[in-house]
Amino acid sequence: MQNENRSSMKIAVCPGSFDPITKGHLDIIRRTAKLFERVIVLVSVNPAKTNFAFTIEERVDFIRRVTTDLDNVEVDSSDGLLADYLRAKGACAIVKGLRAVSDFEYEFQMSLANKVLNPEAETVIMTAAAENMYLGSSIVKQIASFGGDISNFVPECLLQEIQVRLSRK
Fold it and tell me: Domain 6-131 is in which class?
């Protein structure tokens, strides 16, 4: 990949809040890495979401740690418009994971808005693997806050850190 012209590379961006990253997120990232030459996992600031359990820096670090084996994946953060970020990075696709029909309407609206803002970018929807259909960061946070076992939901190398932060004091 070192000698490749980045302008001709097919670059995808996987945006999300990743608070915290789950095995479902990681599955979408791994599958995206098989389809695109370069993948940027973007921890994006969503003004509609507040009360994060982890800082942006922590979330970026978590993602870097669980994707070290993926040579074509990098991690970044942004507080601007996704459409502008894609343009700046020369990315051609936004990849989003879809867990349930309830996710579709929001992702569909975002896809249309991003297409208006950046007509060159396509939105690619990946359906979650069957074992991750119910899995979201909110569920992980809720289970952990009650002292429940989240080992099936988050990458093993992050389990202890996530559990300590999310458990009730």
Answer: alpha beta
